[in-house]
Amino acid sequence: MPAPLRLFATAFLLSTALTLSGCKSDEEKADEHYQNALTLIQQGDPDRAIVELRNIFRFDGSHKDGRRTLAELMRQRGNLQEAYSQYLRLAEQYPDDLETRIALMQIAFSVNNWDEMERHGSKAAELAPDRPEVKAFEIARAYRDAIRGSDDDARRAAAAKARTLLQDQPEDFMLRSTVIDSDLRDKDLNGALSGIDWLLAHGNTDMRTYQMRLGILAELGDMDAVETQLRELVAKFPDDKNSKAALLRFYLSQKKPDQAEAFLRELAAASALDDPGPTIDLIRFLSETGKSDEARAVIDKAIAERPDPAPFRMIGAGLDFEAGQREEAIATLESVLDGAEPSDQTRNVKVALARMLLATGNEVGARKRVEEVLAEDATNPEALKMQAAWQIQADDTDTAISGLRVVLDHQPEDAQAMTLMAEAYIRSGRPELANDYLAQAVDASKNAPAETLRYVRVLIGDGKLQLAEDLLIKALRLAPSNRDILISLGKLYLQMEDYPRAQHVADTLRRLGDDTSVQAANQIEVERVNRQSGTEDAMTLLEGIAGDAEASLASKIALVQAQIRTGDLDAALQRAKDLKAENPDNRALDVVLATAYAVHGDLDAAEEIYRTLLASDPAVPGVSLQLSNLQMRKGDAAGARQTIEEGLEATPADPRLLWAKASFLERDGDIGGAIKVYEDLYARNSSSLIVANNLASLLASYNDDQDSLDRAWTIARRFRDTDVPAMQDTYGWIAQRRGDSKEALPYLEAAAKALPNDPLVQYHLGKTYMALSQPEAALASFRKAVEIAGPGDQRSQIEEARQAILTLENGASAPAAEN
């Protein structure tokens, strides 16, 4: 809880009148403003007091009491950003000031900034280890360490200490938050709810506290209380879009669309004519629920009646754009800007226009508009987020993070900014910080599906299945018909071997009724049977699904694919033929049939189908690549390469064909050509892990210059937490080339174990063992590399491995070859 503002005695507020004649010194002017501020605080006029406190620093930037008073006042008013800034200035000027360090530590904790909490808390512990606030910090740090280490016993021990200290420090937010979090993890929902209610009753009414309460109510299944809480959030934080969105999702999940619409109409009717926000929310809802005519009517009415019709022209353009009238929509926004003076509104229009231009492929135009906005307002959140997305794609992560911090300073609950921050930290090789922001985005969005699923994927990858289940269930309670959440939950239950609940999810998906949901339900059920009863029973179930009179074509194709996977190739080919005969005009079935022929061994029949498809449409997706792969199987490498080149003539931007071209170039020894292709692919989509890995690997393996190594590191540092062998090799080898052999070793050992037939991986490991003065291990790795490569491999790395073997066998150290 924020510390109470220190008020000074009345006697101290009144300073002795100056008796000296002449001009006042800067110090005297500063102190006069300070005394005025204290008087105003005592009189209950904090706004004017803040003005006086700021005036102090015009004359004395190191006025300790003035800055502390301003910091405490800002903290009391809930402006934690400004309070933190003022305290930080104090810490810079007075590094050993204990109260300042404690305040910074507590604020950092309250906004989940663990790095800053650690920095200031550690300093406070040096200054006064026995202070109660410092003891609370030590407990919170131990608690977080236990969570990161998945040590439940240590976590509960830390929480028990927090409970004990709470008896003497009941208002310590750090201790109480620790206890609440522990109760939540131990499923003591009522205990956690009691703790949160205590915080709310004692003035801690920030957004995060309400969010925690909302999550508990949802988990308890008290939907009436959830609705009440959501409506309270909307009333208390009227500018928070996430709260409104959560309430709408709740109404829709409860099959109450009329209440959702009534709620929005209520907000719109109560809004002032110069406040377009609530009416725009209503328009969006009407449009998204299929009431486009009503949405247009509201837009037309607003344009005719509102003093400023521009926001409604803008949303009307947005609806036009979504309806496919892209040129008209862009022209509308440009007309809104024509001749308009710069303002917050014109900047919003420019950002909306930038998004449209980006969607149409005009990135240059989009960037220009964003630059215009930031030139006028360097803190515009929407423009900064667009800019950050581009910076992340360009691997300029530090700049992106700096801009996103500005966004979160102005909009602390911006889930999109938190997600972008996570992407930036992933790119820069800091997965723990990325995960923190993904978790915060889930909270800020009120367990919205997209944010929940994004974080759940990370948790599942880390093996934290129980936490992933908890989050999915929370999200599902607020949106019980969300297909994506259900599918993710069903797959999770299969992984957890909780088959009854996996079947329950499948049944729920099937009740949704749409083809995609039914297909997902079938996949979950078939996999459940496969795991429980074996492949034969699973195939019987799949055949029953495909043979049903109402079976979709997707279900029938799925059966063919399953028969191929299980080796029943005759049945797969016959079923593919039957499906094509039943649907002669379906080109997708041509591909299915060709695949069935290919796995059956009739490569000529498969090739004929592919060539027929390409003759009718050279740009048909994927077929050129499949034909090329088929030709490679037949030993026709030249023909396979020619097919890729012909495919690129028809679709020059197809990433799969470009990737195949790069592979051919690499195979032919044209490393420079391969790097050029991968650079092009990376420029188009730097989020592709495969492209990033291949580019970084080539740069680090075949180029010796420092610029290439630095570029490879910038690209590959995102692999720091990877368990993919090829990426482990890339990351490890780059770390070794950068001189960090200890960092490289575990990655390269794991890669060599998983890729035992790749000679370069063994070579990389051997080089690392040599750098770590482990000659016997190095010799074994070099021997493996040479053995796998064979006598005909003349690559420089293999030649170096051969020379290293001779040197090591003769008992001398291998030559210090270039990395």
Observed structural traits:
single chain; 819 residues; globular; CellSynth/LPSAsmb/PSIAsmb; Serine Threonine Protein Phosphatase 5, Tetratricopeptide repeat; mainly alpha; TPR-like_helical_dom_sf; Tetratricopeptide repeat protein; 0% strand; repeat; 46 helices
Write the SSE topology:
Elements: H1 10-13, H2 26-42, H3 46-59, H4 64-76, H5 80-93, H6 98-110, H7 114-127, H8 132-148, H9 152-166, H10 173-185, H11 189-201, H12 207-220, H13 223-236, H14 241-253, H15 257-270, H16 277-288, H17 292-305, H18 310-322, H19 326-337, H20 344-359, H21 363-376, H22 381-393, H23 397-410, H24 415-427, H25 431-444, H26 449-461, H27 465-478, H28 483-495, H29 499-512, H30 515-533, H31 535-547, H32 553-565, H33 569-582, H34 587-600, H35 603-616, H36 623-633, H37 637-650, H38 655-667, H39 671-684, H40 689-702, H41 706-716, H42 725-737, H43 741-754, H44 759-771, H45 775-789, H46 796-809
What integer is the average pLDDT?
89
Tell me about the largest β-sheet. Answer: none
Helix residue percentage: over 70%
CATH class of the domain at 702-819: Mainly Alpha
Structural class: mainly alpha
Content of β-strand: under 5%
CATH architecture title of the domain at 702-819: Alpha Horseshoe
CATH superfamily of the domain at 702-819: Tetratricopeptide repeat domain
Rounded radius of gyration (Å): 32 Å
Distance between the termini: 55 Å
Can you tell me the overall shape? globular
Low-confidence segments = 1-22, 813-819
CATH topology of the domain at 702-819: Serine Threonine Protein Phosphatase 5, Tetratricopeptide repeat
Q: What is the strand tally?
A: 0
**Number of alpha- plus pi-helical segments:** 46
